[in-house]
Amino acid sequence: MSSFAKELLSPQHFDIVADCYEQVPMHCLLFRHGIAESPGKWGDEFTRPLTQEGITKTQHAIEGLHRIGIQPTHLLCSPLTRTQQTAAILKDILSVPNDIQTVPELMYDQSPRLLFSILQACPPHTCVVCVGHEPHLGQTASLMVFGDHSNGLSVKKAGACLISFSANVDVGKGQLEWWIPPAQLRTLRKG
Question: For residue 176, what is the domain's CATH number?
């Protein structure tokens, strides 16, 4: 087990996650869909489903999120099949209380700036999970934290990053709490 995973598995880290939820007005968890059928094999970009491997690895990654105490209140996803499937897995494992909301603003070809008005409309003290695609999620994280686009940020399939907002959700006002690749999330589920 890596030192990163050992640090995240420590009981002290679980307390930090719980405290963080109580003190911050909004958390936004950006989660990329799991491994999907290849575009060449499937043909239709909009209906490409997760592979069986993608389903299994996504379930295991989300179990890692559950283990570190992620408790979403809202779940948003793009209209594509692979994100809908990923959102359904998230809703089930993390017991998200609200219905999944399909938002075209999470499509890979949309401006990440469009997502901010949706997040601003959410009530305070929420944890919103946004299930989407690359390069959109990396660009969104960059806008949230740095206030500008950065080509260097990318969320891997079934990977996640958590961004908190201490006041209003706005460009450049987010604080990166963590960025965890899928292999580390899967390791976290094992304890």
Answer: 3.40.50.1240
